[in-house]
Amino acid sequence: MSENGLTVDPGCSWMQVKGSVHAFLSGDESHPQIKEIKGVLEGLDERMKKAGSEILGSASLVDKPETSRADIFCGHSERLAVGFTLINTVPGMPIRVTKNPYMCGSCHNTMKFISKIVRREITVRDTEQFHNFKDGICSCGDEGYWRKLSE
């Protein structure tokens, strides 16, 4: 795309925490709490490795251990938003994120893991639908994601 002079607007996710709206762009490194956010994501990555694929079943990107670390740090804005919310809200509080593009299969899988590990309900509204993650299951029934994840 860049060879053709086209640019892509970065993905953006936003949520409300303590009465303020917070927004994250894909690959955003400028947030004042970025080190803490990355620390949370790294901790989740370790827990995901320990949990293995039993949470999500066999049709998972996480079945490939070499991809899980790259996947969790892909820089997609919803992951940064969820990491931020985890460190700035009380345990058990539902997480609500809105994002401008659709959610990729890797992020969909990661949200399933996070909802199971931290025992929080996570709702991500993308351009196509609401994804309500609870106990490692998404309300969409992985519609459209299973095929992507199993390829």
What does this protein structure show overall?
It comes from Papaver somniferum. It holds the Pfam family DYW_deaminase. InterPro entries: DYW_dom, E2_motif. This is DYW domain-containing protein. The protein has 151 residues and is α+β, with helices and mostly antiparallel strands. The chain is built from 5 helices and 6 strands. The chain has helices at 34-51, 65-72, 77-88, 105-118, 145-150; strands spanning 12-17, 20-25, 95-99, 122-125, 130-134, 137-138. It has a 6-stranded mixed β-sheet with strand order 2-1-3-4-5-6, covered by helices on one side. Mean pLDDT is 81; it is low at 53-73 and 147-151.
Chain-wise SSE layout:
Layout: E1 12-17, E2 20-25, H1 34-51, H2 65-72, H3 77-88, E3 95-99, H4 105-118, E4 122-125, E5 130-134, E6 137-138, H5 145-150
Parallel strand pairs: 3-4
Antiparallel strand pairs: 1-2, 1-3, 4-5, 5-6
Helix pairs in contact: 1-2, 1-3
Summary, kept brief:
With 151 residues, the protein is of the alpha+beta class. The chain has 5 helices and 6 strands.
Q: Report the radius of gyration as a whole number of Å.
A: 15 Å
Number of strands: 6
Low-confidence stretches are 53-73, 147-151
The helix/strand series, from N terminus to C terminus, equals EEHHHEHEEEH
> Looking across the biggest beta sheet, what order are the strands in?
2-1-3-4-5-6
Secondary-structure class: alpha+beta
As a percent range, the share of strand residues is 15-25%
What number is the mean pLDDT?
A: 81
The number of helical segments is 5
